[in-house]
Amino acid sequence: MSQDPFAVTRPLVVDLDGTLIPTDLLLESASQFVLSHPLQGFKPLLWALQSRATLKAKLAASTRIDVAALPYNTEVLHWLRVQKQQGRSLVLATASHSVLAHQVAAHLQLFDEVLATQDQVNLKAHAKAQALVARFGEDGFDYVGNDVADFAVWQKAHTAHVVGASAHVLARVRAMDKLGEVFDNNLPTPTHSVFKALRVHQWMKNLLVFVPLFTAHLYGDAQRLVLAALAFLAFSAMASSVYLLNDLVDVQDDRHHVRKRTRPFASGALSLLHGWLAWPVLLVASVSLSAAFLPLEFCATLGIYCVLTLAYSFKLKQVAVLDVLTLAALYTLRIMAGAVAVAVPLSFWLLLFSVFIFLSLALIKRFSELKAARDAGQSGALRGRGYAPEDLEMVSSLGGSAGFIAVLVLALYIQDGQAPHLYGAPQLIWLACPALLFWISRAWLIAHRGQMHDDPVVFALKDKVSWGVVVFMASVLVLARVWS
Prior knowledge:
By secondary structure, this protein is an alpha/beta fold. It is 60% helix and 6% strand. Helix 11 packs parallel to helix 15 (296-314) and helix 17 (348-375) runs parallel beside helix 20 (432-448). The N and C termini lie far apart (81 Å).
């Protein structure tokens, strides 16, 4: 489309939800309301039965959205600022409630006028089109929108600017012969976002349910292998369910974090509604699978895992020390669940080892967050956490000690009277001790250098040296088993 010399004389009207931001403020406020008032979660349904405008008004009055942290489309904002400098009048026209729209406008300091939902008028689609025509006349304004609901407005506008629209929507706008600027939303594909939100890579942690089977040397038992695999699937579905809920809870905190702001819900790559629909489905799938195929003891352990994880998401992660103890317990519960799933006795040494090694990993996670905050010059407590940057040295001391105690537990197990019943030459397991000492020391050294991913498990999965240590230790255990 050629440059329009008269464009500067027409108001440039900009949509908010899905255009200026990839998320939807109605869903943002509804999500915040449910999280803040879980026992009143039914109220938005009652308000919606009255009218859409009533729902938006009640939610806007009952919640607080941090508009400064919303995931704005930076490319669109830059273009709008250029238009503003050229003397154009900018108008924010949105179906979001007037209270929220004015907060966004006040933050951005770009708009000369705000039109939004208020009283009993839900300013969307045809209602928005009518309001804009009444204000500026047909063809008297340009409009920036993103989806099907904006066609009613584009039809009345002089020029249609499009943001992050599907190929189908873009083709329909082009057919109107009004197409102006086209902007990308700069978001990953839906498939990538779904896998990231489910944290499929974190399912590797659930392989811990196989540990009791292998430490008992029952890996040749096909029936137990199937049970362990079902336990893995149940834990994976449960874990993804809780990850989704945790991200929904943490949306506003994540938007203040240098890396977590790119998470699907925080960035707007996935709708909050999809998260609220998906996590209960995964929860039911996990419980159903467990109840149908696995022992009652496994179901009870999975239930404890679920309750403890929810407690962590809502409260315990904000309590210093208790948060990392909870994370260590969650790892250990996976091992306990694996033992009851395949009906093998729980080993005292295995449980003790897992508590200390995973406590060390959890403290690495907190250390990395604290170091990143201190390196960024942040002072005061971390948002949503019970730590401050000045706790860095103490966290490091506790974490390194926990890791070395795990190695001590392994060494003491070698001398235990039960070891010869499982290994032909248990003394060979001593070779695993320096390897584990090396890995723990190296992990903490990397964390001190600021090169550790804030999740050490993810780091280990991508680290060739870590894989080499795992292969070496596994080889030592196999050799100790077959040596005679």
